[in-house]
Design goal:
alpha/beta, Rossmann fold, 7-stranded parallel sheet, 26 helices, 24 strands, 18% strand, binds 1,4-dihydronicotinamide adenine dinucleotide, binds 2-oxoglutaric acid
């Protein structure tokens, strides 16, 4: 199967006859209404004038949505604001930092096509010109009002001779401009729509990235030449401009489940992707419905990505596990479809380790049960059964990222550390590796499990293993629920064989906070139960949000597969001034030769080429210079064994 990212609209438009794109300034070129910002700047520190901030905003909104006359709103706002030239300089600096995200990320396109982008605004040339200059828009390509200053340097009114100070002014002003060829108007406000309605523009884009004005959006319905766009990427794409992106990001859907941290949501939105979030996990049926049309899926530990889900995933490019474990994802199924899987292998490691150390002390001192007794009014000040952790032996099963971190912290607490791992590991500090699990079990005062969730680890700790432990040992599991036979653990605790335990993960976990927790472990003495929160610290969640979204964005934006758990890892630079083909295929003979034949046939000039394979997949990345034909792309997609094909610009 290939991923087809086509753009029929752009195909129809001859690249040679690029239109002139005329942008509105307020809430389009910038994220904000400049006069609202000016009001905040001038009045927010003066309690007596706070109401003027609201008055300015109200006037702006009424004019933008077409409720009152634009000319009246403009004049009244200037009368309230009365700015000086120095005030406007401050405003310019603020506005430079508030350019719309999709405009800012397409700066290269602005600079590459001087004269093709112009500004028309009911705002003021005085502050617009220095902001748009950074995008190569010259003063003569800005139509805007001018402020009239009094002798005292304070602006008192608007230049009345300028058509833009009047109602319907944008239509008149634009018609009088020296533009040849098609004109495309992009804006959020009613006066922008009027430009199209009044015949001064051939096409209109209602720009809703910053603000959605219902009256304007409604007005576009049923008009073939008008369209609502959530980002400037779409405008560039539709109008045949070579923006940074071969496919508008706003049409790529990201579905984030399980309360993924806001840093991730923001990262995708800032890059222009269409993000949907869901608080809890989805069960298989709901996920099958939700996954259709989704390009990127973000989950944590409670969403299971099964073969059936993958079969329904018609557009899926990548799955991000916003956690460490990936046992909830059918990795083989993903590989078979060329879907890349990423996780955040180190972002919550420390949180888990700190929790294990805390639990170790709490259990060794019997603090948990003492606290429960206190809550029932029982004061039991006694040292019996309470111990220091110093000189005790902690046994770690699974000496990976978490196990080895724990080794360091436990040693710092004065504990003796021994570990068991099926793989060769670098032993840290004075820890000792045991090659026999049984030998380790027999020696530990505290046992902590940190193996990964592979299926073979089911019931790694069962009745036989608990029986091999010292009487009165402590047991901790913050790895995966299925690793421990919980009936056997319950029995070992009830019999006193295991003196105390802490369990954070369970074979069956509720999908959301509203679902009940049912387990044979509830109600047992000296057993601390926690709702899978080993990695749930604000620090870890933020770090995971940043790390996982960065991996996914690097994959989307440049094809980089660094840290992918199933794809061959290839580190790639940004796509600058070139085209990049990304070809994911089954690792079968002949694919590379077929790709190279097509490249030779179409005489494509290769700037860089990479091939990396793993057991099941091959990943070819080809960077070519700008000239290539659509036929070449079609042939590359059709190579036998192709799973996914994308091109980036
Ligand atoms: N409770 C929570 O909120 C969290 C749980 N976790 C879980 O903690 C576990 C460990 O995470 P990491 O240390 O990052 O993983 P890791 O992959 O770095 O380490 C796992 C280690 O276990 C070893 N191992 C696997 N099976 C084994 C076996 N049968 N016997 C001995 N050693 C075995 C591996 O060789 C590896 O060294 C994972 O299951 C992860 O999902 C991770 C973060 C948060
Ligand atoms: O916090 C989560 O959702 C899962 C944490 C976890 O178990 C992991 O990172 O593997």
């Amino acid at each position: 199967m290939t991923t087809t990212l086509e753009n029929p609209v752009a195909d129809k438009i001859q690249a040679a006859v690029l239109p002139t794109i005329v942008l509105d300034f307020d809430s389009t070129f910038t994220q904000v209404e400049a006069l609202d910002i000016l009001a905040e700047q001038l009045f927010s520190s003066d309690p007596a004038r706070l109401t003027d901030i609201t008055a300015i905003k109200d006037l702006t909104d009424l004019a933008m949505s077409g409720e009152i006359s634009f000319a009246e709103a403009l004049q009244r706002r200037v009368q309230i604001l009365k700015p000086t030239k120095a005030d406007l300089e401050g405003l310019v600096e603020t506005l430079k930092g508030l350019v719309s995200a999709s405009v800012a990320r397409n700066k290269e396109a602005f600079l590459r096509h001087p004269g093709k982008f112009r500004i028309i605004s009911g705002g003021f040339h005085d502050f617009i010109a220095p902001v748009v200059a950074e995008y190569g828009i010259r003063p003569e390509h800005i139509l805007a009002n001018r402020l009239v200053f009094g002798d005292d340097g304070i602006a008192v009114s608007v230049d009345q001779g300028n058509p833009l100070s009047k109602d319907g002014g944008k239509v008149v002003a634009l018609q009088g401009w020296d533009i040849t060829g098609p004109v495309v108007m992009v804006g959020d406000g009613w006066t922008d729509f009027e430009v199209y309605k009044g015949g001064a523009a051939d096409r209109f884009y209602a720009f809703v990235e910053n603000v959605k004005r219902e009256k304007v959006v409604q007005a576009t319905h049923g008009i073939e030449a008008a369209q609502v766009v959530v980002s400037f990427d779409e405008v560039l794409h539709n109008e045949g401009f070579e923006g940074r992106y071969s496919f508008p990001r706003s049409r790529l859907k990201v579905l984030l489940l399980e309360n993924v941290h806001p840093t991730a949501i923001q990262a995708f939105r800032e890059e222009g992707y269409d993000v949907t979030t869901v608080k809890g996990a989805l069960d298989e049926d709901d996920l099958i419905d939700a996954i259709q049309g989704v390009h990127i899926l973000g989950i944590r530990s409670k969403t299971t990505v099964t073969q059936k889900v993958l079969d329904a995933a018609d557009k899926l490019l990548a799955v991000g596990a916003f956690c460490i474990g990936t046992n909830q994802i059918d990795l083989k199924g993903c590989s078979k479809k060329g879907i890349a899987v990423f996780n955040a292998p180190y972002s919550n490691t420390r949180s888990v380790v700190e929790m294990v150390m805390g639990l170790t002390v709490i259990l060794t001192r019997n603090i948990y049960d003492k606290s429960i007794q206190m809550h029932t009014g029982k004061w039991d000040k006694s040292a019996t059964g309470a111990h220091e952790v110093r000189n005790k032996t902690i046994g770690i099963i699974g000496y990976g990222a978490i196990g080895s971190q724990l080794s360091i912290l436990a040693e710092a607490f004065g504990m003796r550390v021994i570990y068991y791992d099926v793989a060769e590991k670098l032993t840290l500090g004075n820890a000792r590796r045991y090659r026999s699990l049984d030998a380790l079990l027999a020696e530990v005062d505290v046992l902590s499990i940190h193996v990964d969730g592979r299926a073979e680890n089911k019931n790694l700790m069962g009745a036989a293993q608990f029986a091999k432990m010292k009487d009165g040992a402590l047991f901790i599991n913050l790895s995966r629920g299925h690793v421990v036979d919980i009936d056997a653990l319950a029995q070992a605790l009830k019999s006193g064989k295991i003196y105390g335990a802490a369990v954070d993960v369970f074979p069956e976990e509720p999908r959301t906070n509203d679902d009940p927790f049912v387990s044979p472990l509830t109600g047992i003495k000296n057993l601390i139960l926690t709702p899978h929160i080993g990695g749930s610290t604000e620090e870890a969640q933020e770090a995971i949000g940043e790390f996982a979204s960065e991996r996914l964005l690097n994959f989307l934006n440049r094809g980089d597969t660094t840290f992918s758990v199933n794809m061959p890892n290839v580190q790639l630079s940004e796509v600058e001034g070139r085209h990049r083909f990304l070809h994911i295929h089954q690792n079968v003979p002949g694919v590379m030769a077929a790709i190279n034949n097509i490249i030779a046939k179409y005489n494509l000039n290769i700037l860089a080429q990479h091939l990396k394979t793993n057991e099941s997949l091959g990943y070819v990345i080809v960077d070519v210079d700008r000239g290539y034909s659509k036929e070449a792309l079609e042939e590359l997609k059709a190579v036998t064994g192709t799973l996914k094909f994308r091109s980036l610009t």
